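User: Structure tokens for both sequences below?

Assistant:
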Amino acid sequence: AAPALVRTTVRICLAYFASGFNTGAVDHEADGSTNSGIFQINSRKWCKNLNPNVPNLCQMYCSDLLNPNLKDTVICAMKITQDPQGLGSWEAWRHHCQGKDLSDWVDGCEL
């Protein structure tokens, strides 16, 4: 499959299992961090929330991840995939998408 198609299927699978395609999803973790947006990006490392002492590697507020315009969210997710953990950073990816045939996610799409 073409690389763009592979990236698209990965994002669709991840978005479905992370948030059910809900751009406004916020999940509060026991450690006080939050997972925000369609990809449920965590505030411990990737975005700025109430805690000023986080790395904020995506250089954005976690609330920005709730925007239905996904441009900044996708840019942040791409940064996460370049991290050594890569897609393994997402539990949803590890449990539902990794190693699976993802072609059904885009079957019939003109990509």
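Moving on to the next sequence.
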Amino acid sequence: MSPIALPTQHAAVLHGAKDLRLEDRTLWPPHQGQAQVAVMATGLCGSDLHYYAHGRNGDFVVQAPLVLGHEAAGIVTAVGPGVKHLVPGQRVAIEAGIMCNNCSYCAKGRYNLCKNMRFCSSAKTFPHADGTLQERMNHPAHVLHPLPDSCTFEQAALAEPLSVLLHAARRAELTPTSRSTVLVFGVGAIGLLACALAKSYGASRVVAIDINQTRLDFALKNGFAQQVYCLPLKDRAKTTDEALRQAKENISAALTEFDMPDGFDIVFECTGAEPCIQMSIHAAITGGKVMLVGMGSRNVTLPLSAAQTREVDIHGSFRYAHTYPTALALLASGKLPNIEKIITHRLPLKDTARAFELLARGRDDAGNMVIKVMVGSQ
């Protein structure tokens, strides 16, 4: 008796730094509680780029072939036993984090801190959980979220980075009624989403700081920020004291430019760069909040006395929990104008390596700025 021939599918598989191969893989049917999804759009993220470029992201090293990608949406093609809320043909956003629903953090609703979290496309756990840069994937149905009718696959892929900001905004107590003033450091995709979310929540002032004037011009032109400031590039400080003094001087000049000498209610730090983290403490108003969203510097020297004596709260923010339905509703509502303009480039799955090279360069062959690269199914 011959075995049943299972169908195959294509996946972009990382074997090591800059070693990405398009492979044929067996397509297994979904297990109990899973659904199979045809992935239609995946946005590339900075963490994906680190894995592609270096074969690692911080301490997490790729130990076996890994499929990257975790900002994605697609169409349900099959459901496993026990799945009741999804049907084939349904459009869904894929939440990449698979929580255990069994630890104290999951019980408290803070599943982003789950001790047993398996995150698709991350090398933190082994065996690694594959991500979304493949034609089809089986995924737990409870972390697949139906799309509103007016939400496109590309918009739904943005629900993942938007969720990062929704979670940070909740921790900062930014609400539609707070009328807060907001400063955003860094206007990459995450920073632009921070600006867009703050504006949609009725922030009375939304401004942005970066070292890249082209990105700042983009943020201003497309209505993400009301005012921007380009930090002057100075020689690297030789001592810690000099670095702290430089940070204070730089942010003082920016606050003067913004006509906000007392600072801002909420500062979203989206760069992870040490000088920006230092500046963010001085940029917050007395009694204000600094949200650490960007990841980069591991050990940072901070002007802590400036935070302590002015009661500036410094909050860490990691991924997200219970955000996807809100993110999808917001993306479908039209309350984030020009949000699709964050997606600057689109490539098919077979050109995934080229998509990563494009993201790494930051500009395409025509000299156009690269912000978010979207990889499609074809």
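User: Anything stand out in the second?

Assistant: The chain has a mean pLDDT of 96.
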